[in-house]
Amino acid sequence: MDCIFCKIVAGQIPCDKVYEDEHVVAFLDIAPITRGHTLMVPKSHAQDLATTPAEVVDAMMRTLKKVAPAVMRATGAPAFNVGINNGAAAGQVVMHTHFHLIPRSAGDGLQPWPHLQYGPGESRQLAETIAAALT
Ligand code: AMP
Ligand code: ZN
Question: Quick check: CB of 92 below 6 Å from ligand 1?
Fold first, then answer.
């Protein structure tokens, strides 16, 4: 399969690895949003969160929790964002699921996301529709 993250996992393409265990590899993003931007990549290929087995998502999150304090210590960043670009419309470019860990500091220039406002009753109705979709 022509997947760049599978090739990194297989050692066919180099990466700046910071951590590896049975399920996950964590390495520096090659084009970081901030210094220390790190990717949590499962060793088994899955395109997106929906097709990633729950135990693999658990391992990705455990890796994130383990790596985040080390990234903060190494970079001096006091905070971080966690992101998943899930699907092309959300900006996913590499179709092998992954978490982004993005160190943040005051004045780093990144903008917060914009916010909408719901109309009267709109959020209640939407919440009910979502809840119904879960059953
Ligand atoms: P996404 O938009 O969530 O699919 O993000 C993919 C990320 O992978 C981007 O931030 C890229 O900079 C990063 N990336 C692509 N190729 C490599 C590579 N060979 N090594 C490390 N990071 C990479
Ligand atoms: Zn892959």
Answer: yes
